[in-house]
Amino acid sequence: xxxxxxxxxxxxxxxxxxxxxxxxxxxxxxxxxxxxxxxxxxxxxxxxxxxxxxxxxxxxxxxxxxxxxxxxxxxxxxxxxxxxxxxxxxxxxxxxxxxxxxxxxxxxxxxxxxxxxxxxxxxxxxxxxxxxxxxxxxxxxxxxxxxxxxxxxxxxxxxxxxxxxxxxxxxxxxxxxxxxxxxxxxxxxxxxxxxxxxxxxxxxxxxxxxxxxxxxxxxxxxxxxxxxxxxxxxxxxxxxxxxxxxxxxxxxxxxxxxxxxxxxxxxxxxxxxxxxxxxxxxxxxxxxxxxxxxxxxxxxxxxxxxxxxxxxxxxxxxxxxxxxxxxxxxxxxxxxxxxxxxxxxxxxxxxxxxxxxxxxxxxxxxxxxxxxxxxxxxxxxxxxxxxxxxxxxxxxxxxxxxxxxxxxxxxxxx
Length: 414
Ligand SMILES: [Zn+2]
What we know:
Elements: H1 3-30, H2 46-79, H3 82-91, H4 97-130, H5 138-170, H6 174-191, H7 193-201, E1 204-206, H8 211-222, E2 227-233, E3 244-247, E4 253-258, H9 259-264, H10 267-282, H11 285-307, H12 311-316, H13 324-380, H14 389-395, H15 401-410
Parallel strand pairs: 2-4
Antiparallel strand pairs: 1-2, 3-4
The structure holds zinc ion (ZN).
Zinc ion is lined by residues 276, 280, 354, 357.
């Protein structure tokens, strides 16, 4: 295939992806209902429901503008061969290939972050603020940015360095070695997520002794869940939206509850949410999810290895010669339809797992409390209760609220 043809294919993928996403967002916006389904009618009163619809309409309009702008920029950058030009320009200053690649990606990362900065700012300090979600300050916003820059530089830069060094040293067999390395890195990131990375952004404090702690401990004993610690995270410093998760591959399990969650839910609801998380562990969703992402990474790396030294990929992006890191970019773009499809299957699997975790919580604890918790969560987060079915099918990692509630109700003890 000529570089010109490859470049047209990339542009066609970009355009298709853009149009498809806009149609989906439009369908989703249009599917909002004037009145809620009967089962969900107690979540919002009329005013709150109006507020949730206004919120989603405003988020959608904002999304239409930002995706149009980023589409224009991406399309322009590819169509003009800017990436090839920029990379070639850098060769005058940096002879070392790997170092040049790191500067190349870092410059693109910074440029795109600066371009999108006004939108990130508007999203947090205008839209989220208007609906009462935002708790962040301008100072915190920029401190977060600084920290994520540093983290991306260390982790992203390190991974890129290893990848490019392996490609330079052993050619297209790099994928096997890199697969081993990246799997170990993924494992370590997962293992140290709560103890190393979360504390960079948030404060974790152990849950105090009391009614909630007792209820959690006695539930975990009952289902033989190897709980080591329960933390409260100060999510409230950024947003009033709430969540819960637990982490730890292997024997040591930590549960992390958002302070905003603890504040707004009863003890029964919190234990029900926790029971759902325990369900993910008991049904082996965490281990299987991890194994699946390792396998998926291996497959992608293998396919990448077939194209890594093909000059026409770099040339399609405007470079006069082969450049391995430009090939990475072109590969990423050519692979995007396949990753979309993989994403749909992963969401299908994830939704199946959510139903199983709900079922586990209903069987070992209390389905009614879980339903109450879900409704409470939806109302505080102004969740969209009537997404378009096709939109939900493609994009949702969790089943829509109504389906989850119907499923829990259909179980015997709920
Ligand atoms: Zn879940």
